[in-house]
Design a protein that fits this description.
Elements: H1 5-9, E1 16-19, E2 33-36, E3 39-42, E4 49-53, E5 59-61, E6 65-69, H2 77-86, H3 90-93, H4 106-114, E7 129-130, H5 143-150, H6 154-160, H7 165-172, H8 180-190, H9 195-203
Parallel strand pairs: 6-7
Antiparallel strand pairs: 1-2, 1-6, 3-4, 4-5
Helix pairs in contact: 6-7
Length: 207
């Protein structure tokens, strides 16, 4: 199995990806960074995704990219109740697996995509990163952790970094992944931040 066009385009723009170069064992090196997908580019034939643009419009080869997704085993009662309101089919919805996920009502399937669940089995094939394991990629404190450690409230940090305090709030609560200029401005004021954890830590709460 390999990463294909259908595995990427089905998810909404804004999905976060882990970038990195591959070593001889075809695994991502430790020198990695997390970015947001804004567009997909294609090879000359137009059939296979050859590269993608991250949120800074830098080109990233698809072969070096792994999307962050939730395994179907992470579906909660909260998700199940929402799906049952769309299509009352408890026999399938109470036990969604990679084997029966395509039997779901189209609207239920679309919801799983919206919630970034892995409907292709990419995680088990090493083609996606389990979002529940984001802590394994911890590099630095989150924005909120470091802001509080430095003793700033959101308005103070916004003024110091020449950023709107609403933006600070959106980023801390997982509603927005900041562009490079904003990340640089903030880090120049308070230090290195783990933007991936900053985004994901509260993103799941917004489902």
């Amino acid at each position: 199995m390999k990463l294909e066009n259908k595995h990427l385009e089905i998810y909404d723009i804004g999905l976060l990806y882990l970038m990195g170069n591959k070593n001889e064992k075809n695994k991502l090196k430790s020198s990695i960074f997390i970015a947001e997908l804004v567009a997909i580019g294609y090879d000359f034939g137009g059939t296979n995704p050859d590269f993608m643009f991250d949120n800074d419009w830098d080109i990233q080869p698809i072969k070096n990219v792994r999307p962050f997704l939730y395994p179907l085993s992470s579906i909660t009662k909260k998700h199940i109740l929402k799906l049952l309101k769309i299509d009352f089919n408890p026999q399938i919805i109470n036990n969604i697996t990679i084997d029966n996920v395509y039997s779901l009502h189209d609207k239920c399937f679309s919801k799983l995509i919206e919630w970034h669940f892995d409907v292709f089995g990419l995680i088990e094939n090493g083609l996606a990163i389990n979002k529940n394991e984001i802590e394994n990629y911890k590099i630095s404190p989150t924005l909120k952790e470091l802001r509080l450690h430095r003793g700033y409230n959101q308005k103070q940090l916004a003024k110091l970094s020449k950023t709107n305090n609403v933006v600070i709030s959106y980023v801390e609560n997982g509603h927005r992944f900041p562009r490079k200029r904003i990340r640089d401005n903030i880090e120049n004021c308070i230090g290195k931040i783990d933007w991936g954890r900053t985004y994901f830590q509260n993103k799941s709460k917004n489902l």
